[in-house]
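Tip: read the tokens left to right.
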């Protein structure tokens, strides 16, 4: 690879049933780096585990990436479909004496492993230097890579720096199983080479593989791509992220009410930084992101920060879109809103944006809008509805009936003026009024609450509560 070749990155998930948040960040880094360099970002589905690689599991990955807004270039490549090409590379290595057929199994294999350990190096099969006979060839066997016995291999890693491995510690890797299926390490190399990948950006759990893969690249006479092994994302306790801390999969973050643009911004900032910038646009991220700036230390998922970032994007979000997303939350909770209700939500959600860090919170905070008349009056509110308070709320209804400006601000002023005209503090009116109009749901500032409900609904709810027998 010459330094002038255009950058090609790729994300290569195994479809195991979810798109892990760490994988999503790997995909994001690959996508950002490709955009930063004007290169390409490719997708390869590593579906060689036939049992787990169901269509549904593949779909989860594609949906997760699309939800997150990570579009790849071209069609995804499916690894399993390329097994013939992988076998071709194995054959090349065999033909060139860089791989060998091996019949080592059972007790003999155990003994060879023990002997290798005792001699202080990784497994080398006795078949490395033996010529198989025709009768051997008829027996099931694997094909191993003939790794160098001595010397070092250096993985040039843009995040980890140069990492040196001793060849004696790397065993003669199986590259073709006895059932004719190529192994992961071989398939990855052939695919990355054929896809023209210049930068392999992936989780640091693959750093050891990079050493073996480098040797096989060299044996095949191919350029070794640049590696960037990115550390894991840990939970708040510094340990591996687990469900105990809320969520691990992208779909779960979506269900918890995070916006894709918020998660993108947050994940980009997790383990990478551009000065003190916490909030940035996709364009800025692409302009600033260099994989060489990714931290070597594991990142920690910080829910408070994520919530902060999400709040920011909720405030920026288009009202119509936000209303639809909140309506989806209602639907998941078994309360389908009809179109007029969604439109109503869209018309007022601007007033509620500050009240939710997530879409779930926005659903909680907007539930008062959709309470059915007559709304239920909780015990505390009933206790507040003395004859005196009822009479006062009755006078308020008369005044509100005359009110034309139904903006939150005008209503706030109106309520203040009303309390003054009654010669009482707002505390004598507010709690009862809130209890009556909110139907026991959380509600914002009273001016906002009434504005959100609208005149007809506000007066209706008050009249319901004040009518004799209520
Ligand atoms: N399929 C591997 C995984 O999901 C990734 C391999 C790679 O990126 O080289 O862990």
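Filled-in amino acids:
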């Amino acid at each position: 690879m010459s330094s002038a070749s255009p950058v090609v990155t790729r994300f290569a998930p195994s479809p195991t049933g979810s798109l892990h948040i760490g994988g999503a960040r790997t995909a994001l880094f690959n996508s950002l780096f490709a955009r930063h360099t004007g290169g390409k970002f490719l997708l390869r589905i590593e579906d060689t585990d036939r049992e787990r690689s169901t269509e549904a599991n593949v779909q989860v990955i594609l949906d997760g990436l699309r939800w997150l807004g990570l579009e790849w270039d071209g069609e995804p490549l499916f690894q399993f479909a390329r097994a013939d090409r992988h076998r071709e590379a194995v054959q090349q290595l065999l033909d060139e004496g860089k791989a060998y057929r091996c019949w080592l199994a059972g007790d003999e294999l155990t003994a060879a492993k023990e002997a290798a350990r005792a001699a202080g190096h990784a497994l080398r099969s006795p078949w490395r230097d033996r010529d198989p006979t025709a009768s051997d060839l008829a027996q099931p066997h694997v094909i191993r890579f003939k790794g160098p016995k001595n010397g070092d291999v250096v993985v040039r890693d843009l995040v980890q720096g140069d990492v040196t491995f001793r060849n004696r510690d790397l065993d003669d890797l199986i590259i073709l199983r006895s059932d004719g299926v190529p192994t992961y390490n071989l398939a990855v190399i052939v695919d990355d080479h054929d896809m023209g990948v210049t930068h392999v950006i992936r989780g640091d759990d693959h750093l050891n593989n990079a050493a073996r893969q480098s040797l096989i690249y060299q044996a095949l006479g191919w350029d070794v791509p640049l590696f960037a092994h990115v550390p894991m994302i840990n939970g708040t306790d510094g340990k591996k992220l687990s469900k105990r801390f809320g969520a691990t999969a992208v779909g779960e973050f979506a269900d918890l009410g995070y916006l894709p643009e918020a998660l993108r911004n947050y994940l980009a900032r997790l383990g990478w930084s551009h000065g003190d910038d916490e909030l940035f646009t996709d364009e800025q991220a692409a302009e600033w992101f260099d994989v060489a700036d990714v931290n070597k230390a594991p990142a920690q998922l910080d829910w408070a920060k994520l919530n902060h970032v999400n709040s920011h994007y909720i405030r920026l979000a288009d009202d119509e879109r936000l209303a639809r997303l909140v309506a989806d939350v209602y639907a998941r909770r078994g309360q389908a809103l009809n179109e007029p209700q969604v439109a109503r939500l869209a018309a007022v959600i601007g007033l509620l944006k500050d009240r939710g860090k997530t879409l779930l919170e926005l659903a909680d905070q907007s539930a008062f809008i959709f309470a059915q008349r007559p709304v239920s009056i909780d015990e505390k509110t009933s206790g507040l509805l003395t004859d005196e308070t009822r009479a006062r709320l009755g006078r308020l209804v008369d005044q509100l009936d005359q009110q034309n400006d139904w903006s939150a601000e005008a209503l706030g002023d109106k309520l203040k003026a009303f309390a003054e005209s009654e010669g009482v503090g707002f505390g004598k009116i507010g709690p009862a009024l809130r209890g009556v109009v909110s139907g026991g749901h959380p509600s914002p500032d009273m001016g906002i609450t009434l504005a959100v409900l609208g005149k007809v609904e506000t007066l209706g709810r008050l009249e319901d509560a004040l009518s004799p027998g209520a």
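The mean pLDDT is 95. The pocket of glutamic acid is lined by residues 12-14, 46, 188, 202, 206 (CB under 6 Å).
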